[in-house]
Specification:
Layout (H helix, E strand, L loop, with lengths): L9 H9 L4 H10 L3 E6 L7 E7 L5 E9 L2 E8 L3 H14 L1
Antiparallel strand pairs: 1-2, 2-3, 3-4
């Protein structure tokens, strides 16, 4: 895990594990890769959140939600995207090639 760039603790590691994601092998790959930004909102309790759909090195397409904690990225959650979001990402990826 990239602890200098990402804010990981037991809470968010366990949370994404419930969605069958791993921190460094999937969540970080999506965020650091060529992900498509799907949106932004103020989140709960005023915490700004960004939504990304991207692909892991193994070809798994995922949606990852992040918040900034100082200069570090905190993965709030991650999960399999809707079919529509997955298709949107795949179209985005195809256009960039």
């Amino acid at each position: 895990m990239n602890d200098k760039l990402f804010d990981w603790d037991d809470a968010n590691i366990l949370h994404i594990a419930e969605h069958d994601l791993t921190p460094e092998e999937e969540a970080e790959e999506v965020v650091l890769g060529d992900a498509l930004e799907k949106g932004f909102d103020a989140g709960t309790m005023g915490e700004e959140r960004w939504y990304y759909v991207g692909e892991t090195a193994q070809g798994r397409v995922l949606q990852v939600v992040i918040a900034m904690r100082g200069k570090r990225i905190r993965v709030v959650t991650g999960f399999k995207p809707t079919k529509r979001d997955e298709l949107t990402y795949l179209e985005y990826k195809a256009e960039k090639q």
